[in-house]
Structure formats: structure tokens, C-alpha cells
Design goal:
The complex is a heterodimer of chains A (122) and B (598).
Chain A: H1 4-19, E1 27-32, H2 35-40, H3 42-55, E2 62-67, E3 79-83, E4 89-91, H4 96-108
Parallel strand pairs in A: 1-2
Antiparallel strand pairs in A: 1-3, 3-4
Helix pairs in contact in A: 3-4
Chain B: E1 4-9, H1 12-16, H2 19-32, E2 39-44, E3 56-59, E4 63-65, H3 73-83, H4 111-114, H5 132-137, H6 142-150, H7 153-163, H8 175-184, E5 191-196, H9 205-212, H10 214-228, E6 232-238, H11 242-257, E7 273-279, H12 288-295, E8 319-323, H13 324-336, H14 338-341, E9 352-359, E10 365-370, H15 375-382, E11 392-397, E12 403-406, H16 416-421, E13 430-435, H17 440-454, H18 460-477, H19 483-499, H20 503-507, H21 510-529, E14 543-545, H22 555-559, E15 565-566, E16 574-575, H23 585-589, E17 595-597
Parallel strand pairs in B: 1-2, 5-6, 5-8, 6-7, 9-13
Antiparallel strand pairs in B: 1-3, 3-4, 9-10, 11-12, 11-13, 14-17, 15-16
Helix pairs in contact in B: 6-10, 6-13, 7-8, 7-10, 9-10, 9-11, 10-13, 17-18, 17-21, 18-19, 19-21
The chains are: A alpha+beta (122), B alpha/beta (598).
Chain lengths: 122, 598
Amino acid sequence: MKSLEELAAIRDKMKSTVLLREGHNDIRIVVGMATCGIAAGARPVLNAFVEEVNSQGVADKATVTQTGCIGICKYEPVVEVYESGKEKVTYVHMTPEKAKRVVAEHIKGGRVVEEYTIGSAK
Amino acid sequence: MYRAHVLICGGTGCTSSGSKGLQTALAAELEAKGLTEEIKIVQTGCFGLCALGPIMIVYPEGTFYSRVKAEDIPEIVEEHLLKGRIVERLVYNDVPDGVAEHVETSLNDTAFYKKQMRIALRNCGVINPENIEEYIAVDGYAALGKALTEMTPEQVIQEMKDSGLRGRGGAGFPTGLKWSFAAANEADQKYVCCNADEGDPGAFMDRSILEGDPHVVLEAMAIAGYAIGATQGYIYVRAEYPIAVHRLQIAIDQAREYGLLGENIFGTDFSFDIGLRLGAGAFVCGEETALMTSIEGKRGEPRCRPPFPALKGLFGKPTILNNVETYANVPRIILNGAGWFNQIGTEKSKGTKVFALGGKIHNTGLVEVPMGTTLREIIEEIGGGIPNGKKFKAAQTGGPSGGCIPAELIDTPIDYDNLLAIGSMMGSGGLIVMDEDTCMVDIAKFFLDFTVDESCGKCTPCRIGTKRLHELLEKICDGRGEMEDIDKLEELCEHIKSSALCGLGQTAPNPVLSTLRYFRDEYIAHVKDKKCPAGACKKLLSYEIDPEKCKGCTACARVCPVGAISGSVKEPHVIDKSKCIKCGACMEKCRFGAITKK
């Protein structure tokens, strides 16, 4: 170890790995992963959220986690975003591509992607 | 990128309850389900709740599973990791012996953890101790970097002084002051030593830190080396801690590989290296002068002080010796500042203390609380109280050098000075909880038995004195005691205290003195009435069958291992006291409550 910068580089590289264990972040992205969700393609969606949260650098404020059946199976894959002090947002018919946009606009930018939400679903 | 981390405890407690097999089973199951790219298995150090091992925590939820078996793995993978449904039957139940109204699935919400404040144990159970990069990710070695590049050795020592950190090994000597003494002495070579020869019965916090976060000790020792001007460090660890030794060696190798030990650390002209020295398990080698004599390759015996190690220590050179838990606090103090640390705790005892909870208590394990937390909070809230509805009688702190705290002092805020004032001591932090079935004379005898065994024999007061103390206690427990024996005990205790060579001998009488102070009536009951009020001293017990209640079922006669019970079927039975070995088997077997113990 020749400099503090070198140490900081290792720390930053490893930070996201350990962050997952530091407890509850402000934002929780919950993917419905019951049989219905998995059948509808929730697994790639879940993995896309994990990738995007890290690659877009918001791992320190959002945690991706999973849950069972939310009860609206025909809208699966369903993803809900919980943020303290705010109304929860329910996204439906999610795909990995949509996940990318949700992370960029909603998680990072703070603007809910209205067109993917349950209110806009037909 | 992994979406979930499964942490499995690899500490000694959980390893012995099978956590290795669990890890293998989990790896195989993840492989079979094709989840190896998504889920990461991390072997960590101790979480603290050793009685409930093997322990497994699943992040990001922080779900706390206890007593997990290999058979449970397919269910955890299928339900939790695949479908996100927590396996509630395996989640740690907060309410002892009962059913919790709602299951706290995250460990941070359990009563066991909620009141704790983790500084020394902060990384235990969080990072993988065998991976230096995980330690760096949680700001590891940043304190060393800060000290070397931004602070002078004097500033480091001043910071330690201002923090108010006191030695966690037992005596509570101010750490910064110790460092300043060694720094002030000029020499061509100085040493930094770490006392990892944890030997108090029931204490295992140092082991836990070494197993769960070995790098914190290395980093702190390097900081100490910089502060006092030493280039070489030694960790003296007992060979009975194989996992700790193994992980320390890995940590040292990794630190050398990353240039965090060795020449010109962080590009400065500071060089520092650390070697491991294994102890053979002699309790006295935890005493500082004996420890250093042992590192030198000689027989581990204490010597007179002064000269203190800060002047003439290892190989006759200025040396500082600190305990593992003390070191574990150092990097945080350097990073967060003395002002952060000295806000925690009481006026004269700053920071936190780790206690190893043991004995008659629900949550056996390790807890770290701010100094000044009361015994009641530790036992009733964090520890979950006494099992089987028994009453709290006393707590023993400080191991064989400490004393007993009776129930009436349960609200004493625990810090160094308060414990001394009530006749006990902090010691290394063993905390043994005793209920109404514990005989205090017997407890004193137990600890004396330990010191008699472990006395090195160099000085007479300890070698002969503790032996005589033990004989007197045995006499009392056997019902042969006389009233003057109690006075003799007290007198002998004072003599040993004032004349023994080292800390071991000087504190050896403490268990006797403190039980005499708070439970003198029990001693008197043993001597005068020839009775043991707690019903623990076998020679003073007698079992009797109440002929009114006995139905003559013969269950007791059949279970008696020595054939001391006789009687015909459907007639009251009788115990032959000359044959009875007082094992209590008959009493357990009797369904009519006809057998009593007196």
C-alpha cells in the first residue's frame, strides 16, 4: 500500500458489496417473487434491478429485495417502491428494460415513471 | 453483482454446532438451483448469540435464522432465496419459552441487539474475516492511513488520552497514558504486544474479535507502533483458539501482501511487522510480565514491577501491551475522534464494554453495551432473564479475580470504579449469572480451585496461600467448618492480597472476600447449621421420602444407581442415607413429590 488513494480505490470497489449488509436504506424496491411472479418473468426483473441500482450508483440509498404474492397476479411481474414518508408506488408488467428506466428516473431522479404504474395499466 | 448475501457464522460456537456442514449444504443447493451468480455466501465471525447456533443471516432483509440444520437448507433456498418468503419457523424467537406475538425477522430489532452498542464488535458477524478487502470496505486501515499521513505520533497519543479509553483486559489502566510512557523512553528498539491469552473461565470476547475481525487488531497495533516508535509487534494468542490463530495468520499474510504491514507503509518511512506467538494455555501467561517472559522463550512466570514494561519490557526494551478488545476500539477513535468516543459511557469509564454472558441466563453469548449500563438491563432485557422461573441471586464478574454482585445491587451502573467499589472488578468481562440454586461458598471454592491449579508457584502467598484457602472452603462445604475458620479465611485473604507477586495472586482471594461480604449468612449456615441453603453442597444434603405421600410405585428404587432405596410395592419406601450418593435421580423420577431435599 503506497498511498491513501490506493486504499480508497479498494474501499470504493468493495463498498457496494458490503453495503447490502448495513441495514435498511431509505428506499426499498420490492419484487414480487411468488410462483405467479416467477412465471411471468420476475427473476430477470429482480436481477436487472440489482444490476442497475449498483451500476447507476444508488446502492447507498436503495435496497432491492423480494416478497411473495402481492395478490394481483395478472399484473405480474409487480414491483413496489417504498420510500419513507411517501406513498408506495406499484409498477406492473415489469421488464428488465423498464427496470433500468425506473432506477434512472424514480430512484435517482425522484420522478415516478407514471406510465408503468398500476394506475396506467389497462 | 449479488442480490442477496447469506452470512453464516464461522466462530467457535457455531462451528462446533455444525456451521461448516451448513455452508457446504447451502453451496450445493445454490449450485443445484443455479443461484450461485445471484447469492453470495459469506463466512463471518461471531454474532454473539452463541447458544442459538448455527446462526445464519440473510441480507438485504437482515433475517435472523437460528439453530439452522442442513435439512433446513432446501426450504430456505426454495422459500426465502427464490420466492422471498421468510421461513418463520427458523427465525430467532425473541420471547424465551414462549411464542412471540409477531416474529422479529431482523436481528437489529430483537431485544438482544436493540440495547447493544457495537464498537469493538462492529464488524463481527458483518464482514468476512478472511478477506482483507471486506475490512477495507468498512473503512478498515483508513485510521492507520490517517495517523501516518495526517498526525504526528504525539497527536495520536494525545487523541488516545483524550478519548479516555482504558484497558479492557482487567485493570483498566488508561491506554493513552501507557502509550505515552513507552513513547517517552528512548531505545534502539521498542515493541508493541497484544495480549490475546484470554483465560478467564467463561470469557470469550477476545476470541470472538480475533475470529470475526482480525484486521482491526493488526491495524491498531500498527497505529500503536507509530505512536511509540516501534517497528515490531507480537500477538500472544493461546493455542487452544485454533480458528483465531488460523485467521490471524491469514490476516497477517494479506496485510503484508497489500503493504499494510512491512516496509514504508502508505509511502511513509514508517515500517511495522507483526509476529504470532502461541501460548500453551497457562493462565498466568495472561499477566503482562509472564506473557513477555513466555514470548522470550522462557518459562512463563511473572516478575516484580517496577520496572514496568513501558521502560523494560520484552527483551528488556520499552514495550506496550494491550488487550485485544482495547485494540479493537483504537481505529474507530482515530477515525471518529476522541470527542466522539468520550461522549459514550460514564464520567471515568468511556466507551463500551463487551460482556460474555453465561450461567443461568436465556441468551448466552456476547453483548456490547455502553459503560454505565445497569446489570438489570443486561440480564433482564438483553439476556432475556433467568430460565425456568428461578430467581436471580447474584452475578459474578471478573472471573477468578472478580467478585459477586448480589441481587440488591442489580441496578448498579457498570463501570470500572463502581465494580471496584462493590468489591468486584471489570476483569476481562466474563459475566456469570447465578440463580437461587447456586451456593455462594461453592462458587468461591470453584474459583479457588481454578487459581490453585493455575498458580505458577513462584511466590509463596499464592502457591501455599490459595491452597490453604481452598482447603478451608472445602472444610466448610463438607460440614466440618468451625466459626473461627471464617475469620481465618478473611485474614488469609488479606495477607495474600497484600503480599502476592503478581495480579493473579493479589486478586485470587476476591471471590472469597466478596461472597463473605454479601453472603456471610450462607457461610454461617454451612458452619453452624451444617446446611447448604441453596442445596448445592452434596455432603450437607439429605434426601428423604415422605411416607404420607409415597405410593410405593418403586420408580425411585429402580432409578437409584447405588441401590440405596428399599421398600415393597405399594408400601412407603425408605432411603438408606449411608448408601445414598445424593445424585438426585430419585427426586426427578418421583411423580408424587414425595422426595425432598434438605
